[in-house]
Amino acid sequence: xxxxxxxxxxxxxxxxxxxxxxxxxxxxxxxxxxxxxxxxxxxxxxxxxxxxxxxxxxxxxxxxxxxxxxxxxxxxxxxxxxxxxxxxxxxxxxxxxxxxxxxxxxxxxxxxxxxxxxxxxxxxxxxxxxxxxxxxxxxxxxxxxxxxxxxxxxxxxx
Length: 158
Hints:
Layout: H1 2-12, H2 19-30, H3 35-44, H4 48-61, H5 76-87, H6 97-110, H7 114-126, E1 129-130, E2 133-134, H8 140-157
Antiparallel strand pairs: 1-2
Helix pairs in contact: 1-2, 1-4, 6-7
């Protein structure tokens, strides 16, 4: 579970910190990995795309080393986006509307399921602060209206 968490976490952050790949390498060389358990857990959590992305990025920086059991292929733009993020000295993708759109598309493609995608869109547009920058809909009354509407809808579901 720890290894899969690391794969998912690193993938959602575009593998920006190569330390996560080094941690995966250390994990693979020092621990006995039950491949069947890992594959079943990744399948159950629908993390196949993140595992496949990890394998591609891992092979780029640690060629010739064993990779994780993968059973799917990530979209090419996810791989390219991650490599661009890793190779940039400063993260400039969140400084422009185009960069934010690319990151949003990447995150939406990370996992299947409409509930996941709706949650990503909700967090992207209605969370006021993101690394010290205001979001698109950071207008305070709209933000609080959204929060109260969400509370109300959650109460209705119970």
